[in-house]
Fold this protein.
Amino acid sequence: MSPATLKQRRSVLRRLCDYSGEGSVRYGDFDMDAPAAAFIEIRDAWATHPGAADNLIKTVRAVYTWAQEREYIKHNPAAAIKAINVNPAGGAVPWSVAELKKFREHHPRGTTAHLWLTLHAFTACRIGDAIWLGRAQEVMRDGQLWLGWQPRKRGSAFVSIPMMPPLIAATRAADGPAYLLNEKGKPFASVEALRVRVQRWCSAAGIPDRSSHGIRKAVGEMMAQNGCSQYQVMAVMAHTQAKTSEIYTKGAERQTLAADGVRVRIHNQ
């Protein structure tokens, strides 16, 4: 795993071990041969933050898979536990245009929250890259300011995209080793630290349960719906496998085919 993912997994497992629910004994003091109900209980206890709850189950599932391979245990109690944050496309829920507008209205230009949203919306970067991207990744090319970086997620392709005017305007106020700085004027120490702050910003704006990855998905969908090819989507989102970007382009293609089909039927009537 990448250092950021490993740090996040450790944080989740520490919270899991410290959980005691309505009892007096923390989970970390029990034997690992636990029933699925034990993990469903803590998942439901975190239900107000479905992304965190689902990440918990994903982490537990990975731990037990590791334990099964080494024959420390014979079953994986998290194997059949379903996600709370259900989305037909899988994973995070894409932001709607109305939600993006609502967030911007609550967090005006000049705030760190506004800069965060603008950075994600105009780069489609992952939150693991948002904590360190800054002026050092900028380069001038033929009179146009570009942003180029190697995503920290293992297996990602290098990204190089032109900086659009809204992104340039929002980032000019940033004066530090990274665009996004905490209240002490320093980059966020971890992905989890920024993720917690994002949850607060979203809740304050009246759109709880939205995430940075949801913005990334919204960008992919908007690109596909506006006619971008599968390879254009891949270039912006750092995908190296075409099948990953097909999630966005196939949906857009089906919409186009449906629209064409309706027009043909109307024309023939």
In short: The radius of gyration is 21 Å.
